[in-house]
Amino acid sequence: MKRLFLSIIVFLVTAQFSNTFSQSLIRSKNPIVAKVGKESIRLNEVIHFYERNNPQSDYQSDDIRDFLEAYSLYKAKILEAYASGLHNEETFIQEINDFDQKAAPAYWIEKSLKEQLLSEFLERSKTEYLVSHVLVRLDNNATPSDTLQAYQTLLKAREEFLSGSSMDSLNIKYSSRIRNNPMGGRIPWFSVGATVYEFENAVYSLQPGEISGPIKSQFGYHLIHVEDQKPRTAGFYVSHIYFRNDSVSQLRVDSAFNELISGTEWSDVVYKYSDDRQSAINGGSIGLVGNNLRYPLEFSDSVLGLDTAAHWSEPIKTQYGSHIFRVDSVEQLELTSERISLLEQQLRQLPRYNLDIDDVVDRIRKSEVVYELMKNDPIVFSSDSLIKESLGSITATLFPEYAETQSQFFNGLLVFKLNEMNIWDPASVDTMRVREYFDINRDQYIAPNSSSTADPSSDVAQDSTLSDDQLFDQVFFRVFSDMQSILEDEFHNTMKDKFKIRLYPNRIR
């Protein structure tokens, strides 16, 4: 029972509100259907709670009538918990704070940040850029002086660019080097998701011809120049027959091409000739080729220049070797539901999607609606740590849906703890009551044909030589478990009497 009730609390917090309602129930009248103490309970309140707990699409008046008593008892227990001071106990307050520390950031991430990320990702997917950059490499543990030097180096490079120097010369002059090659340079056409987020943000903020200031990323500091921008070019999903560059490759290319012309199935020619054995088992498919930095620009240009109407291409030489290509399909760029789903899957694979509470705090500081809250309570917003501590109340203030979830958890936890005290916790029960139940039902707790060899894991007494007190101690928890329904009925009757619960099920029509 205890686990079941806890599951219900969690379910109430996570269940989605159902918008459907039986035609036989008329909300507009909203009569009083129960009274608990001085509090009147109206039909809409019961229906709303029922729908959160039972999010199915179809139910009848009888279902609500049957639920009415349980809901009234739930309300009575909340009143009793407050009267008992449970809401002021330190352990209860800590559990509520723990809930807010987990639930509030999750709510911001799911309801605000991720929706914003997806909207941004979809919009950026429509455009692609050609850029050049200078990169000064910095480790994560770089000293402040190293960071300042990198920053000033790029400011100097920027001034030289504005004075007429080319990005190519600045890359050679200022970029860090790997194996004596500058780490910056020209980046071929690309679109959203192809670079680290900080770099992408800078690119999408610039117009063609503009140059950024120093931009920090995980690689160091960048100076970025946007050379050109255009609408996204559709990529091709292609298959190929690949031939390495060796002394007999041309003979094999000619043989494969002739077999295709003579009518041999594409998949058979691929399997027989292709040196790309990994793709050969899939008919030569290499997936999407386009302006996505997956392949060098020369290779992508070769593919994007293919005739989509042809059954296959003439043999083409690239930096990898020779290929015979087949265009399987063309990438669809229109934002259909299928396209949005595909882009969302791509977004979920990127590091930017792994948000945490620091991202939430940053979002809160940039949110316009938070400015009004800051006027009323500037101290809370004076530091990130105070924002994190107050995140539950901030979220509840800005989002009514979260406030309801928070209230449901708060009340559910109160009722759970009250039930634990009065029904479920063996330490809180009157031991004499349990002993009376044991004495009346003693035979149920002694195993037949008892012997002196006892099994300590058993929930029945197996040693008939034990005294009644010893027997009772041995089976106490089973006896207590068997009494649960009795204790529950007694406690519910106490609640009904104390709060004078009155039900009016006939008003539910």
Helices and strands in order:
Blueprint lengths: L1 H13 L17 E5 L2 E4 H11 L7 H23 L6 H35 L2 E11 L6 H19 L4 H8 L2 E2 L2 E2 L2 E6 L6 H8 L10 E3 L2 E12 L4 E8 L5 H13 L4 H8 L3 H4 L4 E5 L7 H8 L11 E3 L2 E10 L6 H12 L8 H10 L3 H7 L7 H6 L1 H8 L1 H25 L6 H10 L27 H15 L1 H15 L3 E2 L6
Antiparallel strand pairs: 1-2, 1-13, 3-6, 3-8, 4-5, 7-8, 9-10, 9-12, 11-12
Description:
The protein is α+β, with helices and mostly antiparallel strands and 509 residues long. Among the domains are: 126-231, Chitinase A, domain 3 (Roll), CATH 3.10.50.40; 236-330, Roll (Chitinase A, domain 3), CATH 3.10.50. 51% of the residues lie in helices and 14% in strands. It is built from 20 helices and 13 strands. The protein has helices at 2-14, 43-53, 61-83, 90-124, 144-162, 167-174, 197-204, 249-261, 266-273, 277-280, 297-304, 337-348, 357-366, 370-376, 384-389, 391-398, 400-424, 431-440, 468-482, 484-498; strands spanning 32-36, 39-42, 127-137, 177-178, 181-182, 185-190, 215-217, 220-231, 236-243, 285-289, 316-318, 321-330, 502-503. A hairpin with a 2-residue loop joins β11 (316-318) and β12 (321-330). The two termini are 32 Å apart. The relative contact order is 0.12. Residues 3-26 and 451-457 have low confidence and may be disordered.
